[in-house]
Amino acid sequence: MIENSLWKLSALLLLVALLYVAPLASLFERQGDITYERVRVETAALTDRVRNLGVLEKDQWEAYLRKVSATGEVYQVELEHQKRSYTPVLDGAGEPTGDWRTVYAGSYDGDITGELALSGRYPLALGDFFYVTVRSTSRSKDQALKSMLFGRSGAFPAVYTRNGGMVRHEDD
């Protein structure tokens, strides 16, 4: 008698898991995929626009942040600008050899957002490099559910993307 009721209880628990938890896990995983794709597409659109125009404008930046935050996650967004410059190659005596070396100097979040706040635009030059890195700092619903069910927490961000490259045009 008790044995039958234990089997019925086990069957009921399995039924609940299959009817409610499995579809919920699938739904949360799909939502995470959609969130990742949305952030990746918006980041690629911003970096492509900046690389094609040679300038990051304040309204572009604010629109990007609004679109990314509309996903409901919290993100850490890092900007990177590698400015190209040339320095002469020196011989052992400190005299120029006639050759030139390409050197890149980095500007990061504070410099770029500071310039955006002051002038409303951040210009880049042809041949510079511009990158945007986005990583989520909050746990996604998918990570929370898996942590609850399996007892493991995701040590990596649910969303991580980096996009950018060489600036193709300068702003006149």
UniProtKB/TrEMBL annotation:
Taxonomic superkingdom: Bacteria
Record-given protein name: Uncharacterized protein
Annotated source species: Anaerotalea alkaliphila
